[in-house]
């Protein structure tokens, strides 16, 4: 399903104009392009992922949407340009909050500081609540001040800090929110 999810109700007055859509096969290329930036990837392994990673990632998100009614949606700005993703998915790793639904976001560098992450995450909270999810978590690198600020704006509570496997001393903060 590639229909656009209009998010006007989630936007406060003066908030960014955006749309969410279930990722298409073409979005793998767009995500690969907009995330090919060391600053964007600083808290996600530090380097750009191969295109094949985004191809599998977008395919997995389409499955999540079909099976659960939510996923990490492609985030489009008011002009219809891909600026990242936001949404929710089952926690995908064998460490951390296994069995929980994680809310997350990643934006292209030019989209930072414009309110997209918070506004689109608020829309995500409404959609996962409508899908019957009662609680979400966010796993955020403890050094990622921008994402920590988004969790605060969403009203999330810090639940714990845990080491990130394979990342020499780096910590992940697990935030939670009852819906």
TrEMBL record:
Transmembrane portions of the chain: none
Protein name: Acetyltransferase
GO molecular function: acyltransferase activity, transferring groups other than amino-acyl groups
Keywords, ordered alphabetically: Transferase
Protein species of origin: Streptomyces fradiae ATCC 10745 = DSM 40063
InterPro entries for the chain: Acyl_CoA_acyltransferase (IPR016181), GNAT_dom (IPR000182), N-acetyltransferase (IPR051531)
Record-annotated N-acetyltransferase domain positions: 18-178
PROSITE patterns in alphabetical order: GNAT
């Amino acid at each position: 399903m590639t229909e656009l999810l209009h998010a006007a109700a989630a936007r406060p007055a003066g908030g960014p104009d955006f749309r969410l859509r279930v990722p298409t096969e073409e979005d793998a290329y767009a995500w690969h392009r907009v995330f090919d930036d060391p600053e964007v990837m600083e808290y996600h392994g530090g380097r750009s992922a191969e295109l094949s990673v985004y191809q599998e990632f977008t395919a997995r998100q389409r499955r999540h949407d079909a099976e659960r009614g939510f996923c990490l949606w492609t985030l489009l700005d008011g002009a219809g340009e891909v600026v990242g993703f936001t949404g929710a998915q089952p926690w995908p790793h064998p460490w951390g909050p296994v069995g929980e639904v994680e809310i997350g976001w990643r934006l292209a560098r030019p989209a930072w500081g414009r309110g997209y992450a918070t506004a689109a995450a608020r829309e995500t909270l409404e959609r996962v609540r409508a899908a019957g999810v009662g609680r979400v978590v966010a796993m955020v690198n403890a050094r990622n001040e921008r994402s920590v600020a988004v969790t605060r704006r969403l009203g999330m509570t810090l639940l714990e800090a845990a080491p990130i496997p394979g990342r020499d001393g780096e910590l992940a903060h697990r935030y939670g929110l009852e819906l």
